[in-house]
Design brief:
- The protein is α+β, with helices and mostly antiparallel strands and 43 residues long.
- It has one domain.
- The chain is built from two helices and two strands.
- It is globular, with a radius of gyration of 11 Å.
- It starts with 11 loop residues before the first strand and ends with a helix.
- Keywords: Redox-active center.
């Protein structure tokens, strides 16, 4: 896992270059379970 600091309030979660979640698109922070479930589906 790597945190890449940025500006502008954009929170995104990517795995191997694939965007799993974008706060910019949804307007809210994800729930932890949402991200974990999406990561498990990648396997």
């Amino acid at each position: 896992m790597e945190l890449i600091p940025a500006s502008g309030g954009v929170f995104e979660v990517t795995v191997n270059g694939k965007l799993l979640y974008s706060k910019k698109d949804t307007g809210r922070f994800p729930k932890s379970n949402d991200i974990i479930q999406q990561m498990e589906e990648l396997q």
